[in-house]
Each structure stands twice: as C-alpha cells, then as structure tokens.
C-alpha cells in the first residue's frame, strides 16, 4: 500500500511516519506497515496538539530533543490495546478442564500456581485468569499472576480495576455478583473488581524484546495477539524465551490469528491456539 499524504490539521508526511515507525520498531520490535499511517496520525495528533506544535516534523524533532519527557507518551499513544473479559473463552475452558486438574496433581507438594499474562493491556485478561483460578483451585493454594505491558497508561487502568458497565455487560450475573462491585452515586455506571482478584495480580511494565527480570518458572503463559506485531526473527526468539520461562510440560496460549508453526519445535499444539512445552 502506498502512503497517501492528505491535507490535515497537522502536516504529516511519509518522512515523519518513517521516522516514527523506525523509532517504534527499534524500541519495541513491533512492525508498523504502511496501513498504519492514518492510525499514527490519529493517535499522535493529540500529542502534537497538547504540546502546542504546528506539524509532525516539529513533533519528531521534539522526540529527538526531549526523549525523557515524551518517549513514554509516544509509545503509549501508538500501542494497540484491544481486550475484553474472557476473550477467546475456549482458552479459559481449557484451563478449567485440563490445565488446573493437572496442576493440582503436579504441584500438590508446593500448592503454588504461577502465571504470566504478557501484554495484559487494561487488565481484563489477567482478571479473567484470576477468576478462573479462584473458582477452581482450593483456597489454601498460593496463586500469583504477573501481568505485564509496555504501555504505562493501560497498566494504571489495570491496577485500579475500574471499568464501565458496558465492559462487563456480557458476563453472567453470577460472575458479576461474585467478582465485581457496582459503583454508586458519582461512580454509577462503573464496576470495580473485588480485592481478592487484585491481591493475586502484580502489574509491571515490561518490554518483551528487552531483558526479563523474572526468576521463577510459570505454569502457563498468556501471550495473545502480541506475536502478530513482530517480525519472524523476533517471534522465533520470543517463542524460545517463553519455553525457557515455562515449567516442564507447561502451557502457552496465543491469539486466534497466531501460530507457532515453523517458529518453534519446543511446543506441541494441544487445542485451538493452545500449546504445550514438549519437555
């Protein structure tokens, strides 16, 4: 697709776009195709306006001159965050029916479960994992979920655990009553996750292509709709690193449009976009 420059509030050229997407790729490894030209304008024009600049050339220069002030805002603006509670429900059914029963036997001595939600966005995914575990694991087990993302804004939303009612409108009433508190007065129209869920989740900023500080091994990892943004070399490297972070014969869940086919021989496909480490 050829990049088409248009008359807009702020002039945005192909050179501006190429500079910004190169910067994004160098930092995050995410591939930005030509099709994202309009998306970059839409998301970053808010930053141009807020900074009082007149065009994107000035914004690119501002990023060069003030990376300590603007770089996090830049990454937050262009990161795609699409999520929902119990999105791709078949993964949670598989965890309930297959993964948890096996972990309860395998980890019966330690009574510990460790999970990583990589690319957790605004928190719906790790909270869905937490609900699934708390509903199906004995109460005397030690459950901890690490939830990471590159975007500090979505991590703030996730840690607060407050959502508009439309975000939970598809959930069964029984789940809403047990795991959410409805807002009143000025908080009307909002819900907040119950403390039992927040207590077992740790939200942290993490860049997947940089060093990972975690020392423990995980019983399963969610990395859904993340691999699609990387080139083949980075996908292969990430699959290898995920395998290293998983306990023996543990599970990796990826997005509906993703596959580890020809990327890794360390996993076997056991269900729809659900993989198990071979050893």
Automatic annotation (TrEMBL):
Alphabetized PROSITE patterns for the sequence: CHER
Enzyme class per UniProt: transferase
Coiled-coil positions: none
Stretches assigned to the CheR-type methyltransferase domain: 5-279
Catalytic activity: L-glutamyl-[protein] + S-adenosyl-L-methionine = [protein]-L-glutamate 5-O-methyl ester + S-adenosyl-L-homocysteine
Enzyme Commission code(s) on record: 2.1.1.80
Pfam family of the protein (one): CheR
UniProt protein name: Chemotaxis protein methyltransferase
Source organism phylogeny: Bacteria, Pseudomonadati, Pseudomonadota, Gammaproteobacteria, Methylococcales
């Amino acid at each position: 697709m050829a990049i088409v420059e248009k008359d807009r509030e702020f002039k945005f050229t192909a050179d501006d776009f190429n500079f910004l997407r190169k910067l994004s790729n160098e930092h995050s490894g995410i591939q930005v195709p030509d099709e994202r030209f309009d998306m970059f304008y839409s998301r970053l024009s808010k930053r141009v306006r807020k900074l009082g600049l007149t065009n994107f050339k000035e914004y690119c220069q501002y990023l060069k001159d003030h990376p300590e002030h603007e770089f996090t805002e830049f990454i937050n603006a262009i990161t795609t965050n699409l999520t929902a509670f119990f999105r791709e429900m078949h993964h949670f059914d598989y965890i309930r029916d297959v993964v948890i029963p096996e972990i309860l036997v395998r980890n019966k001595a330690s009574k510990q479960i460790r999970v990583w939600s990589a690319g957790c966005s605004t928190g719906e995914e790790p909270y869905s994992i937490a609900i699934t575990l708390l509903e199906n694991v004995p109460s005397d087990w030690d459950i901890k979920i690490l939830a990471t993302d590159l975007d500090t804004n979505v991590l703030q939303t996730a840690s607060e655990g407050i959502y508009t009612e439309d975000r939970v409108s598809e959930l069964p009433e029984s789940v809403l009553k047990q795991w959410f508190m409805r807002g009143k007065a000025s908080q009307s129209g909002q819900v907040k996750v119950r403390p039992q869920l927040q207590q077992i989740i740790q939200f942290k900023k993490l860049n997947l292509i940089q060093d990972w500080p975690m020392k423990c091994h995980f019983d399963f990892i969610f990395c859904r709709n993340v691999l699609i943004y990387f080139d083949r070399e980075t996908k292969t490297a990430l699959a290898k690193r995920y395998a290293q972070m998983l306990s023996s014969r543990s599970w990796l869940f990826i997005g509906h449009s993703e596959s580890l086919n020809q990327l890794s021989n360390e996993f076997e496909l056991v269900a729809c976009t659900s993989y198990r480490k071979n050893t």
